[in-house]
């Protein structure tokens, strides 16, 4: 099976590979069976403390209706999942179905089935057109849009009142003014998570906010002049003491918990943040506003994660199609999306969830959404470089030099 150098160096020894894979949730790849049933290996990312339980229930219900198919579940953290899948590809032990964000690198290496081979035409037609386009390369759809999300600025109303701030900031200048007032009032102004969990998302807010971005399916533009301006603004916010200590080692999930407990003035959050506040600190007085940009132009980071199916030694497309069609059926899919607090990618799901007021502020922002260039085969490498290096802004790295270094990694240099 073709393997690209984009997945990193091969595992050093067979013993190391065996030990690494044995510690994970399934062996994968061989098309095994259990008691006469065909086995599907499903690897998914963890979105919340409920993710594993939700998937277990879906699998239990599916297996009750399909006794000839068994589904093995492996739940990985977002911090680990990219490294885990790279290791498994090197060992030709990839799962049958994977939930992750970027898929283009896998498609470029001819590792994935086209979407039309793994779901029915009815399921394929149910996806929103914009998400189908975002999941396609040169007219062929490989990714199945899984969930959508948008970002917005969450702010602590009590903190704003204490600091004398009358409204959430719309521009960078207003953001800096609000941050200075919050700091003077003894409040940590802003949470900037630049750790490995999702540094590319926080960075995107400032790149796109400066009029830049990551590029498109054909070309990545990490070191553009606009992005340098965005990175310079990030560094300015850090050096002026407007963020938590050590942003480069801080991940989004724990930092959002800090905001939820009322210990941050502002942080960018997602639709699930609403539910997390309700569960963990329902007394928190907070507001949701568009993300501040250089000139105040409306913007949100839209994210669409995907499901995809790998080609393995045994053709499992019939079983894969049964499972994925079941998952995307309206009642099953909307239950999962609602439980995790995201936005649906299907037309039937959007219709069913359209009256949910907790996601309305994010749905309103989607027309101005910008997306990762996930169909660029070098995006996975770029994302990894951003995650590992962008935190150096807090250590005095020169923005222009740092972005040139990340661009080189993205270009495979």
Automatic annotation (TrEMBL):
Pfam families assigned: SBP_bac_1
Record's keyword terms, sorted: Signal, Sugar transport, Transport
Signal peptide: 1-22
InterPro entries: Bact_solute-bd_prot1, SBP
Stated name of the protein: Multiple sugar transport system substrate-binding protein
Organism the protein comes from: Leifsonia soli
Higher taxonomy: Bacteria, Bacillati, Actinomycetota, Actinomycetes, Micrococcales
């Amino acid at each position: 099976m073709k393997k690209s150098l984009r997945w990193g160096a091969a595992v050093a020894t067979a013993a190391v590979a065996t030990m690494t894979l044995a510690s994970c949730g399934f062996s994968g790849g061989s098309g095994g069976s259990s008691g006469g049933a065909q086995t599907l290996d499903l690897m998914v990312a963890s979105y919340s403390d409920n993710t594993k339980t939700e998937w277990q229930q879906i699998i239990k219900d599916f297996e009750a209706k399909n006794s000839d198919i068994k589904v093995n579940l492996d739940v990985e953290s977002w911090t680990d999942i990219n490294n885990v899948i790279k290791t498994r590809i090197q060992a030709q032990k990839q799962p049958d179905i994977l939930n992750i964000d970027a898929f283009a690198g896998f498609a470029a290496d001819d590792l994935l089935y086209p979407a039309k081979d793994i779901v029915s035409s009815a399921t394929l037609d149910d996806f929103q057109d914009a998400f189908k386009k975002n999941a396609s390369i040169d007219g062929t759809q490989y990714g199945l849009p899984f969930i959508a999300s948008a970002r917005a600025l969450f702010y602590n109303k009590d903190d704003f009142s204490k600091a004398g701030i009358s409204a959430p900031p719309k521009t960078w200048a207003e953001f800096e003014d609000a941050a200075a007032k919050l700091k003077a009032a003894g409040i940590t102004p802003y949470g900037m998570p630049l750790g490995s969990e999702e540094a590319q998302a926080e960075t995107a807010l400032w790149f796109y906010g400066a009029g830049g971005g990551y590029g498109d399916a054909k070309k990545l533009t990490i070191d553009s002049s606009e992005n340098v301006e965005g990175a310079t603004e990030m560094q300015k916010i850090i050096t002026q003491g407007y963020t938590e200590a050590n942003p480069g080692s801080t991940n989004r999930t724990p930092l959002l918990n800090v905001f939820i407990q009322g210990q941050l003035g502002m942080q960018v959050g997602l639709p699930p943040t609403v539910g997390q506040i309700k569960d963990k600190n329902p007394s928190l007085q907070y507001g949701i506003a568009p993300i501040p940009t250089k000139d105040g132009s409306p913007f949100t980071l839209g994210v669409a994660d995907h499901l995809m199916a790998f080609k393995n030694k045994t053709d499992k497309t019939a079983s894969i199609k049964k499972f994925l069609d079941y998952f995307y059926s309206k009642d099953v899919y909307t239950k999962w999306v609602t439980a995790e607090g995201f936005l649906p990618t299907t037309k039937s799901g959007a219709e069913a969830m359209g009256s949910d007021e907790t996601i309305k502020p994010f749905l309103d922002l989607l027309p101005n959404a910008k997306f990762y260039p996930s169909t660029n085969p070098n995006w996975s490498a770029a994302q990894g470089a951003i995650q590992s290096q962008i935190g150096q802004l807090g250590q005095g790295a020169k923005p222009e030099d740092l972005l040139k270094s990340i661009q080189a990694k993205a270009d495979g240099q």
